[in-house]
Amino acid sequence: MNSEINFSLMKSNFVDLDEKDERSGQIKFANSDTTPTSKERNLRETRKANLGVMLGVYLPTIQHILGVTMFIRLAWVVGIAGIVDTMILLLLCCLCTLLTSISLSAVATNGIVESGGVYFMISRNLGAEFGSAVGILFYLANTVASSMYLIGGIEVMLLYIFPSLTIGGSDVHSDTDMWGMMSHNYRIYGSILLLLEVIIVAMGVRFVQLIAPVSLLVVIISILACFAGGLEKAINHSGQQYVFIKFHQQQSVCYMFHVCMLNQQLLQSRIFFPHGADLSTLCKRCVKSEDISDDFCNSTTASFCTHFTASTLACTNAFPGINMQTFYDNMKRMYMDAGESYPDIAADDAGLEVSQDFRTSFFILLAIYFPAVTGIMTGTNMSGDLKDPQKSIPCGTIAATLTTSAIYYALALLFGASITGPVLRDKYGRSLDSSMIAALLSWPSPWIVITGSFLSTFGAALQCLCSAPRLLHLLVTALIAEFAILLGAVDKIAEVLDFFFLMCYAFVNLICALHSLLKVPNWRPRFRYYHWSLSLTGAALCFFIMFASHWQYAVFSIILTFVIYKYVEWKGAKKEWGDGIRGLALSTAQYSLLKVEDKDPHPKNWRPQLLVLVYDSFWSNSVMDKWNVNLINLAGQLKAGRGLAIVVALIKGSSWNCGDRQKAEEMKERIQHEMLRVHLRGFGKTLLFDENQMHGCFATLFQSIGIGGLKPNTVLMNWPKIEEENAVFAVELVEAVANDECIMLAKGITEFPSSSSDRLTGYIDIWWILLDGDLLMLTAFLLKQHKIWRGCKLRIFAIAEIPGKNVELKAMLQKYIYMLRIDATVFVGAASENNEMQAETTFIPNGLSSFSKDYLSVYNQREIEFHNDENWKGTLETIKRFNEVIVGNSKDSQLVLLSLPRPPVNKEKILSHYMRYISTLTLNLQRVLFIGGSGKEVVTINS
């Protein structure tokens, strides 16, 4: 044998090609925003994957995380929440992504991550059901994220670059409610921009690939410009020049960016400042002139006019630069309701004062800002391009998460230390002629930040849409994105977007925690710096953020995940991937079995654990025999007992014969199909036996089936349909009795209803002869829980052995049945000394008063004896008379339940006498179910 092994061939063998074909349809919707189109993927196959940590994971992840939210919302978050709460908010966001990055690194390095990204990881670790559910949510997250980026770009364009393009003019910039004119602007321009990007993506991804590095470069430069501006303003706070950002014919300069304040309330600059004018003249205009006084008093309430007249109008430096006083002033939280210009102070005129457009709180801000930290899956989705994914993904992802977290913290502290609080809370810069606050802080030109923020939105949206390589898929993606655009605001879209990402992150953390706790053999990630407690903390943090911010959305996303899960489960997964959920089920089963003691259960916990024996003497290549199918139906109708169900097919043959083994496998598949059809949860098995070894095979079956305390205690079997099956039936009966099994023997099984039959009405009759009566009642009760038997009423027929005690016995039985909480009608007959039943005809049914006591002596024998023909003839006569009584009362009943006479321990006696005994007893009865207890079954009256 050649000692050299082709590694590439070995690697290809690790991946099941059938699995690739099977999941190709599911992967299409699960591709991440960095996944290439089919054309690029074909080109990539001819190129060696050689990207390292920096270019393959670190920079792409940073480029995806850093975006427009950082520039247009972080300063506002600092102003509203205060520096302390902002630090906590960022801690929650960044800790969530950091813990998820650690779990992601462990999961991604536990084997080869193929295309499909999050879907691939979750489906291979939690199953196809969860993989599909979370994969769809992740696809929706990327699609909705593209809408948020587009609306963010439109906000930058209409407010800060081309305000003249606003439909309705700049006066509608403050009309940002759900049906406000500015929201309509976002919808209209966002839809146009979406159409433009769809056209670009449909043409190819080369342009998108060129945009990505440019977008990252301008974002990094914009961040550096903000830090440079903070330092520059702190150093030159006494009068150095600043270039003003407005789009004018001539570039204007001013010495400081000032705002006009009325006591503690920030005023909009448009009151006293012409749009597009030089900001250096703002302080000259911030005076109580006659024109301004007229504007205030004519457009507001009389109380505000008086307040304006009595208050001080001051021009304040908006950007004092980094200093401790500003830092201390911005420490406190300033949450406000909609329309308030200061906490608990409502704006008298929203057109004059800077006010909030909606209610703010810590968790609302958390929901708005969380999308700014998403994007940590980028490196995982690029695993096909990485030279060493096992090394690059953990290093690049965690480093990118830490880097972006440090940037967010530094920017938040910079904004809090260099910009006054009222200006920070001015979300749209209305106090500074509708200018971007972060851009005004930057140096040398505010255009750096404006350009960077706009390009970042355009490029990020293109990448999200690139996850749809096919035209039809692209159109569906665009349609979903359009629905999100109709929300009409970055803040509203962000609140919805959170939950798609958080569900994905939560499941990634759960995967890592699950495998770590189960210690499954195939859990061997190369990344070692993880722990199950960190993963559980990450998952808990994800759910905490979801429910704390908007519990309604959280419930909806969980329900959506559950619906998709059940749909995929219903459709069925064709491949077994050895996922963690099945590993968890195995571990839980093992733990539970070890907790269940291998001894008789408490009466309160007793329930029928069914061992269903089916036997097919004539092999069928199409369907199972109706006798066997109906027996499985009957077991399914008894499932209200919530016990174990094992269906064993008995097949004559040898395990050494390939043909017999093939028959057994086919029979097992049919059994499992029938069990699934009737919703009988359990196991299907087959037993190949030699006719000469029946006793040994069946004895081994009864003794060994089950595990620990979870093993069958009740055998459900058919009355043989042909003479050839009699011998097998006799051995089954003998071994079941020998192993103290409760026996349920169905006679007339072909007449039993299937699970799809019409509902039955009438009576279920219980003939209580032996001490197994309570077991008969329990069986009848379980049957009545099924829809087929629910319309039937219970009747109990009992015989008093002591003469004259029939009335007393009836009262006792009625009380006992009442305490068992079972509804039934009781009939009692008593045997007299002269062997004639004496009864009061008021409650004894037809024929019972003439029944002989002889039957009791025959029925109650430990084993029916057949010493001579005379005894046997007498026994048959007694049985015939009892059959007449049963037929006279129960002929039209839907089901008759009888105590099973104790069978002989001798196979020959069963074949020669016992089977005739049973046949005589059930003559002219449609459906009969015999119940024979082992003496261990107890039905308790306790709760």
TrEMBL record:
Pfam name, any one: AA_permease
Record key words, sorted: Membrane, Transmembrane, Transmembrane helix
Transmembrane segment boundaries: 51-76, 88-113, 125-141, 147-167, 188-205, 211-231, 362-382, 406-424, 436-459, 497-518, 538-565
Annotated GO MF terms: potassium:chloride symporter activity
Cellular location(s): Membrane
CC annotations in GO: plasma membrane; synapse
Annotated InterPro entries: AA-permease/SLC12A_dom, SLC12_C, SLC12A_fam
Membrane topology term: Multi-pass membrane protein
Residue ranges occupied by any SLC12A transporter C-terminal domain in the UniProt entry: 757-942
A Gene Ontology biological process term: potassium ion import across plasma membrane
Coiled-coil annotated spans: none
Protein name: Solute carrier family 12 member 6
Organism name: Brugia pahangi (Filarial nematode worm)
